[in-house]
Amino acid sequence: MQKYAVVLAAGKGTRMKSKLYKVLHPVAGEAMVQHVIDSVKNAGVETVVTVVGHGAEKVKETIGHASQFVHQEEQLGTAHAVKTAKDILGNKKGTTIVVCGDTPLISDETIHALLTFHESENTVATVLSAKVNDPFGYGRIIRGNDGQVSGIVEQKDATAEQAEVNEISSGIFAFDNQKLFETLEKVNNDNAQGEYYLPDVIRILKEEDEKVSAYITDDVDGIMGVNDRVQLAKAEQKMKERINLQHMINGVTIVDPATTYIGKHVVIGEDTVIEPGTSINGKTIIGKNVTIGMNSDIKNSTIKDDATIKQSVITDSVVGEFSTVGPFAQLRPGSELGKETKIGNFVETKKAVLKDGAKVSHLSYIGDAEVGARTNIGCGSITVNYDGVNKFRTIIGDDAFIGCNSNLVAPVEVGDGAFIAAGSTITDDVPDESLALGRARQTTKEGYYKTK
């Protein structure tokens, strides 16, 4: 059976008190609505339609090709929002799930379970529900004497007896697609807010003697909506706990999960150790037996087996096997380290390739450069890559030695086995196995201090 999804993402979210539209607020480094769409697609939904309104262009830009889009010009309620998808989904056969774009913790396992239950029960509508200790503020699932769902009652409309019910509606539904769009035409806005509400579809279906069910999920956190900054912080915490738990189950040591932030797309190998205060985000891949030291920040990078990162920032870069980085180093985008390389304290690299065994131990800037195997670059050395208008490249061969405080003014090439004397400024190419000096001769004036 074909599966579809309507993601409701048109609201501005005034309680967030932000210029950023609600569904675009990040949780674990990714927009809330993106988490929802990822879960929906991972659950096997083929076609996703996202209802946009406020900030439509920004939402489309964030989601990209993962969804089709419809625009809700006026926010007239959830039923009205779903109805805007009629031109895309109205005539299709199958099951449609309706989910809010501000529920970032909804998992693909929960969605899959909802869809499976809905189809196995041969029901026209299924509400995703949960049993909670404090149901205040939620719509209650009302069941008849036969245990079947008879309706959903909102908090403000509940009788004293109904208010005691602890089974709540998540606001997430599965429908027979054609029945959904047929029934949406019958929903009216005869209520205090003058809006068209999706739960009214459930009421109408029951009045028409259609079968309506509720699937009770154990994942209460997963159905949590985010409407303000307090709930956003709670969602961040829950997502962090979920991600960290999965990595630990998979064989990763996280010394202090409470202070470790890992994005949901990060892959980490067995026996890797993550120390406190670390943030790992984006499409980062970390190998086995890696040590990530305290307060490191890694994004969209690959750290290969047995590498060690100490209190450093790494972005869009590659660190080879058995290599060490830091402490207090920064690998900017385009840095690529081979095996057994060393980037020491207060070293910065950018668009730099360091081949196997190369070393830049401390206080250097290596930008737009290629550094050969086993080459050693001394303290305070700089590849001078920028003339104020253009960037130029420095190429250093294998087994070279670059003395401390050397400036290599690009474009320049230093050959294999070449030796650059400390304190030199090199502006011309240096042949293989040559010594180059580029500094003024020392002048010493004895007794100068006394004459002053």
TrEMBL record:
Task: Give the pathway annotation.
Answer: Nucleotide-sugar biosynthesis; UDP-N-acetyl-alpha-D-glucosamine biosynthesis; N-acetyl-alpha-D-glucosamine 1-phosphate from alpha-D-glucosamine 6-phosphate (route II): step 2/2; Nucleotide-sugar biosynthesis; UDP-N-acetyl-alpha-D-glucosamine biosynthesis; UDP-N-acetyl-alpha-D-glucosamine from N-acetyl-alpha-D-glucosamine 1-phosphate: step 1/1; Bacterial outer membrane biogenesis; LPS lipid A biosynthesis
Write out the residues that bind UDP-N-acetyl-alpha-D-glucosamine: 8-11, 22, 72, 77-78, 139, 154, 227, 332, 350, 365, 376
Name all Nucleotidyl transferase domain ranges. Answer: 5-219
Q: Where is the Mannose-1-phosphate guanyltransferase C-terminal domain?
A: 264-339
Q: Which reaction does it catalyse?
A: alpha-D-glucosamine 1-phosphate + acetyl-CoA = N-acetyl-alpha-D-glucosamine 1-phosphate + CoA + H(+); N-acetyl-alpha-D-glucosamine 1-phosphate + UTP + H(+) = UDP-N-acetyl-alpha-D-glucosamine + diphosphate
Co-factor: note: Binds 1 Mg(2+) ion per subunit.
Segments of this protein annotated with the region Pyrophosphorylase: 1-229
- Binding, acetyl-CoA: N385, Y386, A422, R439
**What is the predominant subcellular site recorded for this chain?**
cytoplasm
The UniProt annotation puts the region (N-acetyltransferase) at: 251-452
What domain of life does the native source organism fall in? Answer: Bacteria
The molecular function terms in GO held by this entry are: glucosamine-1-phosphate N-acetyltransferase activity; UDP-N-acetylglucosamine diphosphorylase activity
Name its co-factor(s): Mg(2+)
The residues that hold Mg(2+) are: D102, N227
Q: Which keywords annotate this record?
A: Acyltransferase, Cell shape, Cell wall biogenesis/degradation, Cytoplasm, Magnesium, Metal-binding, Multifunctional enzyme, Nucleotidyltransferase, Peptidoglycan synthesis, Repeat, Transferase
| Intracellular or extracellular location(s) | Cytoplasm
What are the boundaries of the region Linker? 230-250
Q: Quaternary structure per UniProt?
A: Homotrimer.
What this chain does, per the entry, is described as: Catalyzes the last two sequential reactions in the de novo biosynthetic pathway for UDP-N-acetylglucosamine (UDP-GlcNAc). The C-terminal domain catalyzes the transfer of acetyl group from acetyl coenzyme A to glucosamine-1-phosphate (GlcN-1-P) to produce N-acetylglucosamine-1-phosphate (GlcNAc-1-P), which is converted into UDP-GlcNAc by the transfer of uridine 5-monophosphate (from uridine 5-triphosphate), a reaction catalyzed by the N-terminal domain.
Q: Which family does it belong to?
A: In the N-terminal section; belongs to the N-acetylglucosamine-1-phosphate uridyltransferase family.
**What name does UniProt use for this protein?**
Bifunctional protein GlmU
- Source organism of this protein record: Mammaliicoccus vitulinus
Lineage, highest ranks first? Bacteria, Bacillati, Bacillota, Bacilli, Bacillales
Q: Which gene encodes it?
A: glmU
